[in-house]
Amino acid sequence: MALPPFDGTGWITGMPGLPGAPVVMHVITADAAHVHWDGTAWAAGDGAALDEDTLSGWTKAELTEFAAAHEPPIEIPSGATKAQIIALILAAIQADPNEEN
């Protein structure tokens, strides 16, 4: 997911991404503070990690969109079930040493 736009003085409210997506983004700032996007604004702390329960609330289209936007993109085979997509996303995130869980 991309960061919200910065207007030179602060982050602009509203973040592009999945509609109604739960907290998934963690950032460590230059002063070592941990912050996360809570869906409407940046907040202190790491926020919630992605897990199977969180992802099961997303639609198949939202899961596919998240996988495509992940860096690097998570390849989803044509015809994959929702459960298979969730498993692929979780495996990719757990395999990424830079991803915070």
Secondary structure: elements and pairs:
Elements: E1 26-28, E2 34-37, E3 42-44, H1 52-56, H2 60-69, H3 82-95
Antiparallel strand pairs: 1-2, 2-3
Task: Estimate the global geometry from the Cα principal axes.
Answer: elongated
Helix content: 25-40%
Largest β-sheet summary: 3 strands, antiparallel
Helix and strand element order: EEEHHH
Please give the order of strands in the largest beta sheet. Answer: 1-2-3
Number of β-strand runs? 3
The number of helical segments is 3
Strand content: 5-15%
List keywords for this structure.
alpha+beta; 3 strands; 3 helices; 29% helix; single chain; 101 residues
Summarize the structure.
It is built from 3 helices and 3 strands, in the order βββααα. The protein is α+β, with helices and mostly antiparallel strands.
Descriptive account of the structure:
With about 100 residues, the chain is α+β, with helices and mostly antiparallel strands. It has two domains: about 1-5 and about 25-50, no CATH class; about 50-100. Helix content is about 30%, strand content about 10%. The chain has three helices and three strands. The chain has helices at about 50-55, 60-70, 80-95, and strands at about 25-30, 35, 40-45. A three-stranded antiparallel beta sheet has the order 1-2-3, with no helix packed on it. Strand 2 (about 35) and strand 3 (about 40-45) form a beta hairpin. Helix 2 runs parallel beside helix 3 (about 80-95). The protein is elongated, with a radius of gyration of 14 Å.
